[in-house]
Specification:
The protein is mainly alpha-helical. The chain has helices spanning about 1-15, 20-45. The radius of gyration is 18 Å and the shape is rod-shaped.
Length: about 45
């Protein structure tokens, strides 16, 4: 149980440190998907 708790705290720390990178990648993916959706809607494919 102690190993699980330490691993969880380590994972939580990584998520906090890299949260801005995760947000940036998520925003880029959302923008690309929105652009693909708009492009396919406007072109009628």
């Amino acid at each position: 149980m102690q190993t699980f708790t330490k691993g969880y705290r380590g994972l939580s720390l990584i998520m906090v440190v890299n949260s801005d990178r995760i947000f940036t990648v998520g925003t880029m993916v959302a923008g690309l998907l929105a652009g693909a959706f708009l492009g396919s809607s406007l072109l009628g494919h």
